[in-house]
Amino acid sequence: MNKTIALLITLDTKEQEAAFLVDEIKKLGDLPLLMDIGVVGEPGTPPDITREEIALEGGKPIHELLKNPTREEASPVMVQGCIKILNRKIMSGEVDAVLGLGGTQGTSTCCNIMQALPYGFPKIMVSTIAAGDMSGFVGIKDITMMFSVSDILRLNPFTRKILANAAAAASGMAGVETKFLMEKGDKPLIGMTNLGVLTKGAIEAINYIEENGYEVIVFHAVGSGGRAMEQMMKEGIIGAVFDYAMGEIADDVWHVLRAGGPERLTVAGKLGIPQVLCPGGAEHLGILVEEHEIPEAFRDHKQVFHSPVIFVPRLNSEEMIRVADDILKRLQYTKNKAYFMFPLKGVGRYSIPGGVLHDPEADAAFFDHLRKNLPANIEVVEMDTHAEDPVFVKKAVDLLIELIEEN
């Protein structure tokens, strides 16, 4: 059955590339839906959805944008218009994948649109800047970035091949039969955070969750992972959470590698989602450095390199209390009953007895500060184990299932 591929292209500058992609998609047996996201110039090839239609959906007629056209004014209008049109067509089954082309500005516009589309829906961005840091463009959505290598400025033998590959990728993704459909049932999908220093415990948790008849989706808690989990809570995909890793909170206090942002650790509480919490990995930071470089501010700390370019300093007692205060600030939004697990022998593999970051005094200061200041509705569960101990993990899962079944 024919699939429909939406194409996000500025037709005043990339009309040749657009026409080529339209032909390639038709050769593959699919249907192109060409959307003109340009503003200033007239389209060089006819679109299926015009810039006029998109601008109107975005809240401002194109003739108003053209009075004194600026990217700052036009881009948000075109982005919102495309989001409305595409989400409507996705919901009605009229579009099966989206493919964008662009340089710096086009990548920003297309990716802003793609970030507002559903998880699992195929999103491909052919970009001149895809070889750089794409975190700001991908955000927390499943966008596939494809480096164009050369500029996207007229056709040549090389760009034809790149664009043909992109068309084939979009067609292939659109035709995949596996769907991401969450059916409402008695048992919610559980979200769980994880870090490398907790992976053995995470595997134990996954197995035990599945033994109890639930499914779990695990997020690497490196900033984007925690934010993605919480976005899925907002979208109703995730209905319970074992927040096993809180390194994103520690890194947010110092604004370093795994920073989870200001909303992290607040969403489940605001939504009333059952949650069990564990401060896994919150006793250290992850700092991106030049290979084996030790930042001056942490030379007197216990330390280890997680990789040659990821420096990991152990936080001392005073610094651990700063992390605890930040956790407490975020948990003020938790109104329902929740559990906070204290693994007294270490919150991660580095800090267990004998570990390179073992510091029982700093751990004790951290736990004591939390114990004294957590809201009354968050019950502390202390265990004389480390965070990866199967006994600890199973207790956390049992408590989460108890909360789910109480709801």
Automatic annotation (TrEMBL):
Residues 3-177, 187-403 form the UPF0261 domain. GO terms for molecular function: ATP binding. It comes from the Bacteria. Keywords: ATP-binding, Nucleotide-binding. InterPro entries: Tobamovirus_resist_UPF0261, UPF0261, UPF0261_C, UPF0261_N. NCBIfam families: PRK02399.1-2. This is Tm-1-like ATP-binding domain-containing protein.
